[in-house]
Amino acid sequence: MAGGAREPGQSVTSKVLAVLGSFDADHPRLTLSEIAQRSGVPLSTCHRLLAELEAWRAVQRRPSGEYGIGRRVWELGLLAPVHHDLAEVAAPFLHDVHSATGEVVHLAVREDLTALYIDRVSGSASVSVVSKPGSRLPLHATGVGKVLLAYAPAEVVEAAVASATRVTRHTITEPGRLHRELQEVRRRGYAHTSEEMTLGTCSIAVPIRTRGGVVASLGIVVNSVKRDLVRLLPGLNVASAGIGRTLEGPLSTEPLRQGSG
Question: Which 8-state DSSP code applies to residue 258?
Answer without folding.
Answer: P
